[in-house]
Amino acid sequence: MIVLNEKRVERFGWFLVALLLGYWAVYVAVAPVTTSDSHIYNLARLLIAERGGLFHNPLWTNTHQVVFPWGFDAVYYPFLKIGRFENLPAFVCLIGSFLCVAILFRRGGVPGATPLGILALLSSPLVVFQATCAKNDIAVAFFALSAFTMIELSRDGRSMASDLGIAISLGMLAGAKTSGIIPAAILSLYALAVKWQLQGKMAALRLTAMMFPSMLLLGSVETYLNNYMIYGRATGDLIFINGHRNIDGVQGALANLVRYFFNSLATGLEGPALIRGYREDLWRLSDSFLGWLSLDGKGMAPNSSEKIFLLGCHECASSYGIAGLAAIPLAAAAVFTSGVRSIAGRLALLGWILLAVACITIGWQKFIMRLILGAAMPLMIAATIQAYPFLLRRVKTLLLVQSGFFLLAVMVPLCAWNRGPRCVVAAMKNCDTDWIQEGKIRENIEGLDAAINLSHNKSASMAVILGPDDGALPFLKSRRAHWEVIPNLGGKKSLDKEYLEGFLGATDPESWIILAVGHNWDISLPKEAELLWSKEQCGKVYLFKPSWRKVAGD
Amino acid sequence: MDLKLEKTLIGLIVVLAAISLVSRIYLMSVPFLGK
Hints:
Distance between the termini of chain B: 48 Å
Structural class of chain A: mainly alpha
Number of helices of chain B: 1
Order of helices and strands of chain B: H
Oligomer: heterodimer
Largest sheet of chain B: none
């Protein structure tokens, strides 16, 4: 008979972790870019910069491509070039976060809780979705966590290596995403305070000397310079920024905190049919509660048209699941019971501070839950450290909780419409993977496929007209070697001959296949463009012969 | 074990930072490379 003890449960936990990580590693190795944000700006901006650089580039198709820092987007570039493993950098951030968990749990005196902590994170749909798509939210969470871990390690008076780790983590955190800038500033001050207090002024100065160049080199400073050159402000287009931030101050922040809480009252695994009524009821309940607090309508992002909770297994929204919900009281308890004396308390405090920063700065919109990943992960990890000693008192309960998280983690790919085994098999065979894309990207891809076929048939070069909400450039990159972008950033309804020729270049081939894709599908082109293919709400493909060719022929 | 985990973590961060830096420098220099 097998005797159940802590060591055996831990070993079993590692086995379950290995199973899950094995599955996700295979997914990441074979899956294409699926997130529409990546198709439209995170990765598309790299392919556009590849043609005209960052500065004075006339080819940008979306404000997001210009305004946001690109420090972590750039990590995807080599993978985009080779056309494989595009989702790998985000997954590496997840693995890095698990390393932080292992280090923090050892220092927190609960090394045996590491598999439980990892399983809890893997059972959270939003954590896993962000770690398996080509976005940068998991990078913010990872670099914040790694900076915190390195600060904890430097408490022992460790080597230059941990100072270097702190400096690089903070530089990458600031450069990864706009929402990482304030967390980077807070963690910088915390790191300097710890250094000064424990190792003296010189140690703090040495860290400053490392942080400064790291911020300059890795903090994506050039995007602020580019913003200044384009918009006259380092932070970018004022209308765009105001459209995404919380404009109601503390009242807006409190209202958003309430919404985050209500948005967490779901497993994140519910199907669309099940969730439809529930999310509306939950939104109404949250609204009535806000009305009772006289915070009705506060904290909304002015530019966001849809605000209601998304829930369900959506890769950019969803929720943090049971582990996320359980982390709320446990992480609060960690702060109240041990304060800053224990790692759990300090980690929970970091999570709450980052959540408060998100509430104050970011206006509410439907995709907002992923933007608090940097706060949610420390809270979940702190909650595991807090709960583990209680679970350890009854090993059977520990085994049950561990197995429960594993089952929830298994449900994530099974309930997600584009992460399941069927999708993995299709991606492995490298066929029929368009169905795993979001609707609007699928339409873009359909138009691109038609244009690629016609350009082969007509032996013509290919160009694509892209507006702010049109994407699929990563798809185009993997299917065709040469293509041009004709940007329609302002969403013009018609483009004249001179405009088209301006982007096609005087030395280029005789005829062009031009695709007006997605939102541009009914754009009007000059009479010289002959319509070859059309599909309503999807795209139109034209054959266009530039005028300089006719002149040369005459 | 702690030291090994710490070294692995620092290695991971350095690799990600290096890829980011090289890619950004390359993409910014594209107009000067005459691509």
